[in-house]
Amino acid sequence: MSLLTEVDALPAPRADRVAPHRYRVVAGRVLAVSEPGHWAFLSAPEYREYLAGLPDAHPRFDELRVKGFLAQYLDFDRLAADAMEGSLLSWEGSHRLVLTLARGRARMSPDTLREAVDFAFTIPGPAVCLELVAADPEAVWPLARFAAEYAARRSEWNGRRSRLWLRTPALPPARRADEYARVGLGLALVRDAAAAPGLGVAAARFSAAAAERAAPASRLVLTWSPKARSAPIWASALRAAGFGSALVSPEAPTTLAQVPAFAAFYAAFLDAAVSDGPPLREEWAAAALRRLPPEGGRPREERGGPLPGVDVSGELCAAPDGTLFASERGAASPDAQGGIGALGALGTTAWEELAAKEGVRALLAAAEGDHHPLCSQCAYKPACTVAPSRHLAAQGTYWGNLPLSPACGAQMAALDALFARLADDSLRESLLGWADSWSLL
Ligand code: SF4
C-alpha cells in the first residue's frame, strides 16, 4: 500500500537543473517541497517542464530559483542554514512541560509542584510553557494559583517569559475569571467535538478577563470523534466566547477507516476559521506551518518547534508523584513506569541528564522522519512528525508501521486539507499568519 501520489508521464529529471525535492498531488496541482521545506504549487504541465529543465524565460523560473528548486542556482550556505534551523540540531529544549496536578485520588504536592516549576525553568528555549492538567479545576485551584504565582516570580528573577494554562474539561465558575487573569493563568478547555459546545457566558468571561490583563488567551482543545458536530458550529461557538485559538489535533482517529471523516471535519474547521469574523486559529496547522521556512521573506521571530504532543521534543510530562515522562500520552500508557518513556523524577533528575538517557535517544530517533521509508519520500516530511508514543498506542511499537498507521493517515489528511487551502490565493495569507503569530502553544 502506498500513500504517496503520482503524476503521469513524468520525464526523467535533469540532474543539472532539478534540485532534490519531493512532490504530492494536492487539489489537482503538484505541490513540490524542497528538503528544507520551501514549497511551490505547479500545474502538471509546469511540473513536467520543470523536470525537463526550465528555460530562463519561464514565468515560474524566478520563483523556483529563489525557493531553491533549481540545481544550477543552489545556495549551499543557505541550504546548510535551513537544515540547521529546521532540524534537531538547533532544538533548544522540550517545548512545554505538562503537569498532571491530579489523577484519580493522587494529587501533586506543593513541594513537587515547586520542583516542577523550577525544572521547567531549566529547560532551554525562548520561554517557559507549562500546561497544568486536572479534571476538576476547582479542586486544584490553590495548586494552580501557586504554580502561576511562583512561575511569575521566577520570570521576574531571571527574565525568562513564562506562560501557563490550566487544561480541564470542566469550565471553572465565572467568578474565577478575574483571578485566573490576575495570576496569569490561561484557560485551556477540553471538549469532545460530539458534545454540545457549552461555552457560553462563563467562558466569555475568561476570554475577556485574559484580554484585559494580557494574560494567556483562552484556548479550546477539541477532540474529534466519529459523531462530531459540524465544524462551523464549533467555530461560531468559539468566536462567541472570545476564544481565538483551538487545537483540532489529528490525534483522534484510531483506525484508518476513521480518517476520511476526520479529514472532512478538519477541512471544514479550517474553512470556518479563515472565514469572516473575529480571528480564529487552528493550532496544529499553525505548528506545522511554523516548521517550514517563512514564505516570501515574511518576518518571523523564530522558526521550528515540534508538533504538539511529540515525545521529548514537543513535551515532557510530570505525574502527580513527580515522576517524569517523555510525554503525557506516554505517562498514561499501562507500562509507563517501566517503559523507555520514564525519565526519572522531579527533584533528582536534571534537564542536562536527559540527553544521555537511552529512552530519550530512542524516542528522538523514532520521531525522525528520515528514519522512516515512507516519510523520507513524503512531501510533508519537513512539516510532519508522528509522536512515537502515538505509534505505540495505535500499533504497539514506538516505530510504527506508517503505511497502515492511523496517525500518519490523519496527519497526511490534515496536511492535504491545509495545503489545498494554501493553494488558494484568497486563503493563503490568513493561514500563513497563523504561523507568524504563533506563540508558545
Ligand atoms: S507521518 Fe507525516 S511525513 Fe511521514 S508519511 Fe505520514 S504524512 Fe508523510
Number of separate structural domains: 2
Structural class: alpha/beta
Query: Which distinct ligands sit in these coordinates?
Result: iron/sulfur cluster
The radius of gyration over CA amounts to: 22 Å
- Class of the largest domain in CATH? Alpha Beta
Give the strand line-up of the largest sheet: 12-11-10-9-8-7-4-13-14-15
Number of helices: 17
> Which percent range describes the beta-strand content?
15-25%
Q: Largest sheet, if any?
A: 10 strands, mixed
CATH-level-4 superfamily name of the largest domain: Aldolase class I
Determine the CATH topology of the largest domain. Answer: TIM Barrel
Instruction: Kindly state the number of beta strands.
Output: 15
Anisotropy-based shape: globular
Spans with pLDDT under 50 lasting ≥5 residues?
Answer: none
Mean pLDDT: 92
Helix content: 25-40%
What this model shows, in words?
The chain is an alpha/beta fold. It folds into two domains: 21-85, no CATH class; 93-441, Alpha-Beta Barrel (TIM Barrel), CATH 3.20.20. It has 17 helices and 15 strands. The chain has helices at 44-53, 61-66, 76-85, 110-120, 141-158, 177-183, 200-213, 231-240, 259-274, 283-290, 328-332, 351-354, 358-367, 373-377, 388-395, 406-422, 425-436, and strands at 21-26, 29-34, 39-42, 96-100, 102-103, 106-107, 127-133, 161-168, 185-192, 219-223, 245-247, 281-282, 315-318, 323-325, 342-345. The strands form three sheets. It has a ten-stranded mixed beta sheet. It has a three-stranded antiparallel beta sheet with strand order 1-2-3. It has a two-stranded antiparallel ribbon with strand order 5-6. Helix 6 (177-183) runs parallel beside helix 7 (200-213) and helix 10 (283-290) crosses helix 17 (425-436). The site of iron/sulfur cluster (SF4) has 13 residues, from helix 14 and helix 16.
